[in-house]
Amino acid sequence: MCIRDSAYIGDLAVRAAKAVGYENAGTVEFLLADGEVYFMEMNTRVQVEHTITEEITGIDVVREQIRIASGLELSVKQDDIVHRGYALQFRINAEDPKNNFLPSFGKITRYYAPGGPGVRTDTAISVS
């Protein structure tokens, strides 16, 4: 996606949130197909993908949400938010493809966390 399209879609997302008076963490999703932009949905909560936003903006989304819940203003203005670089997110979910992809479980015998410059690892492993 070119910078012009990205800026246009970003503006649409901000306008959608303002139109309904929404001031908190959330996502507005669009589909871009054949040069046309289609609104898909607005999620009025912190999505698991919020870490992507945090990595490319340097903004702690959860901290900002807590500020709002506490009656404080955001610590940044929309016009001050700058995207820097790119980020990828990967998730591994234990699911059973032979059972309608229901959650599955097993024993974790080894776990090696990735690391290195620029690598962020958020993990959760439950011990039964």
Characterization of this structure:
The protein has 128 residues and is an alpha+beta fold. The chain has a domain at 1-45. It has helices spanning 3-19, 50-57, 61-69; strands at residues 27-33, 36-43, 95-96, 102-103. The strands form 2 sheets. Strands 1-2 form a two-stranded antiparallel ribbon. A hairpin with a 2-residue loop joins strand 1 (27-33) and strand 2. This is Acetyl-CoA carboxylase biotin carboxylase subunit.
Strand content: 5-15%
Principal-axis shape = globular
The largest sheet, given as strand count, sense and whether it forms a barrel, is:
2 strands, antiparallel
DSSP E strands, number: 4
Quickly count the helices: 3
Short summary:
With 128 residues, the chain is of the alpha+beta class.
What distinguishing features does this structure have?
alpha+beta, 128 residues, single chain, two-stranded antiparallel sheet
Topology:
Elements: H1 3-19, E1 27-33, E2 36-43, H2 50-57, H3 61-69, E3 95-96, E4 102-103
Antiparallel strand pairs: 1-2, 3-4
Domain ATP-grasp: 11-70
Domain Biotin carboxylation: 1-128
EC number: 6.4.1.1
